[in-house]
Write a structure and sequence with these properties.
The structure is a homodimer. The first copy, chain A, contains twelve helices and 13 strands. Chain A is α+β, with helices and mostly antiparallel strands. In chain A, strands 8-10-7-11-9-12-13 form a seven-stranded mixed sheet. A four-stranded mixed sheet of chain A has the order 3-6-4-5, with helices on one face. Chain A has a two-stranded antiparallel ribbon with strand order 1-2. In chain A, helix 2 runs parallel beside helix 5, helix 4 packs parallel to helix 5 and helix 6 packs across helix 7. The longest helix of chain A has 19 residues. Chain A is globular and about 65 Å long. Chain A starts with a helix and ends in a 9-residue tail after the last strand. The interface between A and B is large, with 74 and 74 residues. Chains A, B: One of its GO terms (molecular function) is thiamine-phosphate kinase activity. Chains A, B: Pfam families: AIRS (PF00586), AIRS_C (PF02769). Chains A, B: InterPro entries: PurM-like_C_dom, PurM-like_C_sf, PurM-like_N, PurM-like_N_sf, ThiL-like. Chains A, B: This is PurM-like N-terminal domain-containing protein.
């Protein structure tokens, strides 16, 4: 059945039923939500003064292609990319509004799968879907907005200071590797390596727990890597009016990526995008402490310097400089 | 110049400049906003415990057509449709996140105009743009999310009670009239009537002030009319498990609409959509008080009854019943 056969009201009812029938989801619902799906707006009782909000969008043909990525993964990813932004501020995500633009010819089953993916992420990270909007559109798109709270002043891109060390939690480049495997299925690779790279692309992990540990331990500068390390580090440095020197050998690159893409792994790591790794900078002392207490590995990739604003220098094995301008993912080029 | 020639970073800079250069907008900025545009997420200090959030989307080819509606009006309308939802909850809007899906071939000037429209509405209603997202898309779309606060428990669709009177603030049908004039420019009409109907379609007024007066004076059931009176009243009655009896002669229909569309005005009023009028129900005593203190006219269109759940009966001049099912705007049919 297609959604144009179902009609809007029955589609909304169906979505509400999908949500209601997901047992585990019902265990995470909070009493602070006063009005959820179904009224003009959602309403909740704030328990912390500091509110955090972010939004992110996925468009068919640009961020995903039907047929190559299961809708359940699209759902997971659409939520996770937003959660990654909340993680980078040190916040705790609570509520999601979901905007869907859907082609009338969309099979109803795709929506079931999409919501299954939304709910997977909601259950994993204690997030409630509180409302949204369904519209007809010639192009499928998913625009999600997440609100959360924080007990601390947020971690900012603009708080990096010279002498800070720069750390990354999570891998970079693997998502691009997974994307390439999907786009060129004939690349020869082991099943395990393939699975690792596909997972990085289809099922990214927002670093929420890690973000909370960082902020609790005095980190004040952080950003998630969504447009590629170079682009995002350039933005980070520009916001903080500093420069960065990075050791290319220290980048957190999975062996699977190096094995499958021996000629391109460094390009993917620097410019790949959609990694949703957590980048931050802090004093060597705090960094040392964090390396002991954060469960996930932290890669110290280089240092913040008092150089030309926004400049990012990558040093290779031979200590050659590769000077970089912003060269990551431009949404319009 | 097209946005693909400008690139993402320069487009973002341009948007930030447009916002910064709008003098009047800078006067409404609040100290409670801790982090605005430019970081991973926006952050603010809540001043009331009750937070209200809503989202709405406009898609090119579905909700507006380039060439027939100026982008400045699209901007106003995209913000106002969200504000109307906040008004219907009795909330005070504060912050907006703006998601744009843009074709790479979009002229940069269109974006300037769109933001001019956003800012017109922001200045009028004290709303701050705190962030958003730009993505490339084959179809232009605008997904906006607005967060606000409230000092009261919200007005709900589900709070209507038998014996309540049903009131409307604002006109119904005029927006559909304006849409028809745009779609069929040869309809003969006076300049003044035309302007009134076009205004209703292009420049709808969210009833924020009125929503606040209603909630302050004890109204607990309200909803905005965005999908047509019949559809929305049906939803309202269903949520409250009541029925409604409406006097067709009491509907707030502008003379201009009747004059220009003598054969269709009642259909437009009942099923038109995009009116953004404020519908509510309350006791006759409160209604009488409200008629004295609300500056805008209130039309009492009928009563809530203890009939079949969701049923809406319209009585015409001869007191004939027109029984109605939900028959307004279905986004997928």
């Amino acid at each position: 059945m297609l959604i144009k056969d179902l009609g809007e009201i029955r589609l909304i009812n169906r979505i509400q039923r999908i949500i209601k029938n997901r047992d585990k989801y019902n265990h995470i619902l909070s009493d602070n939500l006063l009005v959820g799906i179904g009224d003009d707006a959602a309403v909740w009782k704030a328990s912390e003064c500091i509110q955090v909000a972010t939004t992110d969008t996925m468009v068919e043909g640009i961020h995903f292609n039907k047929g190559t990525i299961p809708f359940r993964d699209v759902g997971w990813k659409a939520i996770s990319s937003n959660l990654s932004d909340v993680a980078a501020m040190g916040g705790k995500p609570l509520y999601a509004l979901i905007n869907l633009g859907l082609r009338p010819e969309t099979p109803v089953n795709d929506i079931d799968e999409l919501y299954a993916g939304f709910l997977d992420a909601c259950i994993e990270y204690n997030l409630q879907i509180i409302g949204g909007n369904l519209v007809s559109s010639p192009t499928t798109f998913i625009a999600i907005q997440i609100t959360g709270e924080s007990t601390h002043a947020p971690m900012l891109r603009s708080n990096a200071k010279p002498l800070d060390q720069i750390g990354i939690i999570g891998w970079i480049g693997s998502s691009k590797g997974g994307f390439e495997l999907i786009s060129h299925p004939r690349v020869i690779t082991s099943t395990k390596a393939k699975q690792q790279l596909l997972n990085a692309h289809l099922h990214p992990i927002p670093r929420l727990n890690e973000g909370n540990i960082l902020i609790d331990n005095g980190v004040s500068a952080a950003m998630d890597i969504s447009d590629g390390l170079l682009t995002d580090l350039h933005k980070f440095c520009e916001a903080s009016r500093v420069s960065a020197k990075i050791d290319g050998c220290k980048l957190p690159i999975e062996k699977a990526l190096i094995n499958v893409f021996p000629d391109n792994y460094m390009d993917y790591a620097l410019n790949g995008g959609e990694d949703y790794a957590l980048m931050f900078s802090t004093s060597p002392k705090i960094m040392e402490h964090l390396k002991r207490i954060v469960p996930a590995p932290i890669s110290i990739i280089g240092n913040v310097e008092d150089g030309p604003i926004g400049e990012v220098i990558i040093i290779d094995k031979l200590r050659n400089h590769i000077l970089t301008a912003s060269s990551g993912w431009d949404h319009y080029k």
